[in-house]
Design goal:
Distance between the termini of chain B: 73 Å
Helix content of chain B: 40-55%
Helix content of chain A: over 70%
Structural class of chain B: alpha+beta
Largest sheet of chain B: 5 strands, mixed
Order of helices and strands of chain B: HHHHHHEEHEEHEEHEEEE
Shape of chain B: elongated
Order of helices and strands of chain A: HHHH
Number of helices of chain A: 4
Number of strands of chain B: 10
Largest sheet of chain A: none
Strand content of chain B: 5-15%
Oligomer: heterodimer
Number of helices of chain B: 9
Chain lengths: ~130, ~400
Amino acid sequence: MTRTRIGLGATGVVIGGYGAFLFLSRGREHLEVLMWLAAGVALHDGVLAVAVLALAAVAFRVVPEVARAPVAVGFVVLGTLTLVALPVLGRFGERADNPTLLPRDYTAAWVLVAALTLVAVLAASFIRARRR
Amino acid sequence: MSGLRLAPPTEADFPSRLRSPSVTSRVGLWLGISFGLCFLTGLISHYAQNPTQPIPFPTSPSWGYRLTQGIHVVAGTAAVPLLLVKLWSVYPLLFRRPPREVRRLVLDGLERASIAVLVAAAIFQLATGLMNAAQWYPWGFSFRSSHYALAWVAIGSLVVHVAVKLPMIRSALGADVEASDNDRPTAVAPGALSRRGLLRTTWLAAGVAALAVAGGTVPLLRKVSLFAVRDGEGPQGLPVNKTAAAARITDEMVGADYRLEIVRGDQRVSLTREDLVAMTQRTESLPIACVEGWSAGAQWTGVRVRDLLDLVEAPAGAEVEVTSLQPSGPFRRTILQGNFADDERTLVALALNGQALNRDHGEPARLIAPNRPGVLQTKWLARLEVAL
């Protein structure tokens, strides 16, 4: 396995090194890209992960034990979907001359998905409570 | 959580047994698969947009690029929940104590650095990819060259990461999901879900995210995908990427004085729209497949490009420089490779789905070729010049 690992590691360094070469030789605005790279990590590790920890701590106190699993499932599904949908929810790329771009009412769509998630979480909690 | 404390947390502050290599490796496997799919389809897309292609990009199947770019965006979107759950499962390791012995400290530092590169590149790729699909560009750098370079960085650091973690991955994937052999000693508290429950939730979240955008390219899901950037609708039944107004196309440019120039050296043919209509008309069903991942099929009618090239006696396999009327833009002038120029499905389209081309679809004439990125399907055609 050691040989496999050394081979893999060397391959990875070569592939990543080629990426670094491409980045440095072809692109411009290197500093801005580096800032975006660092900001992504800082936003995840310093903001998103901490916010999730805080929410989990609150949920642990507020949510009855029987509803914890459904709430966790609903949170993961709706939370990640919301992050995926942020660019369309904010309509940042909208253009007045092109109604075929971002054609939907994404906020209404999000409210619908959130309502469906809420109903599913409540229904699952209710069923679990009755089974006990 | 032990009240207010200013010291940073330690690994012991994260007691959930859900944060286990057993979960990390299973989610990581699927994350690796989705990144692999994104990388391969991304390489295809990058190559398809290259002006010079030592190995000609194939013209068949006509829906090939539609498929690969659809996979690119759907797999990237599904990777968001996978990446977030995976990072959640290893978050305590961020606070692990560095080893004291120098050699191990150096190795630990190298591993942390490789993971920092991997996480930074992974977040960058997913974030800029999603933003690009929604045409949101709050940056000054080139999306294409940065997304391409960092794809190599992400995959390279991913391979390094797999090499470092290989014994752990093999052990965790080989054991039962509830096994605790590889766990941190303090990770013993039951979570809100079982590990199987968390994994199923993760697959569900990835599936929901994929479904939420897949309708941008899969006609059957048009109404299901609530967060797709396109719904398949638009003038003449087709979405528009760049409008005539955005490309600064004026009435004069496409009016009675419009001419399509076919040029080869000294030979020059100048055609009005009526001249083009008078030539043999062909109808082809070809998709518009955008680099941003949306696509839609359509029926195009117009003159075969090869018929036009014959007017200036262009030899078979000749490359053609295609110029648009639009005054500026990175795709104003593009290269139509010889195999695309000679393909009998490649048209100078004058009509779309049975009606004369809408201004936003390239009136009076546009290029449409099989298996080609949408940005290279030049609208408002001004000139086809055969390379000598």
